[in-house]
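Hi U.,

Before I forget, here's the chain from the pilot set. I'm dumping it here mostly so it's searchable later in email.
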Amino acid sequence: MITIIGTHHQDFRENDLSIEERVKVDRFDRIFTEGFSKEGLRSLREMEAFGSGVEAVNRGPEPELMDEAETEVVYLDEGLSEELLNDLMKASRDQHEICDIYPFDGIEESLIKSNVSRRDYIDFFRDLRDMDYSEDHGFSDYAALSNEGFITLMADSAEQLDRPTDTWHFTDMDYSDEFIEGLEEHNIGFNDYVRVFGENRTEVQDRRDREWYRQIDEQIEEDERILLVAGIDHALDYEGTVRNLLEQDYDTSVSPFRRF
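Structure:
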């Protein structure tokens, strides 16, 4: 059995959450995790071939827990091919560039019309995903909210978008209560929100997941209890994710996002 834990790294950095609150690591025979061991990251930084991109790479979700685990820990990124590792370094370095996409002008008009459709709301989530919240990182946390919490998140998002700022380059908006009421009317829930955000994968991530899968497939033994810890984009059920690849060949139990 493979248990897959999806994480949102910012939760661990800012909210002092722990993987141990979701699963006890001691009960597993082996742990696979994205990222690098202390020694692996140190060695990577000593290799000139990978350039400045190494500085943007972190060790993965909750590395302190992995360091202290009595169970064997396999750091999947240390086993990547050199070509992919180099591309990952570049992607990690470049992802901090500010995105200049502001698609919100007029969207509230289509969302509160009487003929508004479920697709309009899904498109709203996609636009929300693509916007850069450089001021406060917005409301894109991958946390499994209650229905009430999800409604609050959408209301907060609408309120946030209504704030005129020079850096966001869009006009004042007038979100009515109809927008929030439409979530229930069109059966829009948190899973829709998470799935849309999970679509934002790159070719580098697809290759990374395939190489992760090969490492896991080559190393696990029959009847081993395996824990896989990776970012949320790797733990959602989409073609090409490591979760999707593993589910085709192994019994899996998936916890793609935390609950509170």
